[in-house]
């Protein structure tokens, strides 16, 4: 990851604001497997007072929240869309986040799509990429 990308997509002020002020996080790729990163991160944020909404083709209820097959099916306003899919699939979900009027997209560790992230920035969304919400939460608590 280049220094420029790091600066654009890992702004500590944006990260802090998203962790502190957001209410609703959609987790694209969230299924009911507690061994998966998406599940662990969704549970962590839910335990810290965030509403989580699973988006997965199976549309299962996860962590007590109704799941939806597509981001465009989510009936509630969305503050942050976490894209827990492989990098080659991230762009389509970033584009859906733009289309539904989400406030931000968060691409976790190793999910890097600079072109999609730039599209989100250009559309006015906040963007965090290649960062873990749990790690950032812990760092914020120590600061």
Write down the Rg: 14 Å
Q: What fraction strand?
A: 15-25%
Runs in which pLDDT lies below 50 for 5 or more consecutive residues are none
**Which strand order spans the largest sheet, edge to edge or round the barrel?**
2-1-3-4-5
As for the number of domains, it is 1
Q: How would you describe the overall organization of this protein?
A:
The chain has a five-stranded parallel sheet, sandwiched between helices. It has helices at 3-9, 12-21, 37-47, 87-99, 114-122, 133-142; strands at residues 24-28, 51-55, 80-83, 104-107, 126-129. The protein contains six helices and five strands. It has a single domain, classed as NAD(P)-binding Rossmann-like Domain (Rossmann fold), CATH 3.40.50. The chain is of the alpha/beta class and 143 residues long. Residues 18-111 form the CoA-binding domain.
In short:
This protein has 143 residues and is α/β, with parallel strands linked by helices. The chain has a single domain, classed as NAD(P)-binding Rossmann-like Domain (Rossmann fold), CATH 3.40.50.720.
Produce the secondary structure layout.
Blueprint (H helix, E strand, L loop, with lengths): L2 H7 L2 H10 L2 E5 L8 H11 L3 E5 L24 E4 L3 H13 L4 E4 L6 H9 L3 E4 L3 H10 L1
Parallel strand pairs: 1-2, 1-3, 3-4, 4-5
Index terms:
Rossmann fold; alpha/beta; five-stranded parallel sheet; 143 residues
